[in-house]
Amino acid sequence: WRQVGGFLKECARVLAPGGKVIFFIPDLRAQAAFVASQPAEYWDVRGESHASSVAFGGQESAQFRGHQVGFDKDSIVRALLGAGFSRAECVTHPLTPTDMICTGVK
Q: pTM for the whole thing?
């Protein structure tokens, strides 16, 4: 999570004026609401917290460590604007409502 600001600033730096970044990322607020609405058996699958894997993905492999930072629409928009993007917006992904499509324009 400590590298998010630097990563977004580097994205803004290398883009031409008017260039865009587009991220497909989990909406942590929507995921938390989804998990909270599930029955008790949802919380424990094979002795693991399924709720955690919804938000952060599988952590078993060093090659795929999943998401390590959670955002909601407001927090990622603030991060993009703070990194130097002139415009930023996030919308709910039409196929997976616990995810979002976020765009930053330089």
A: 0.78
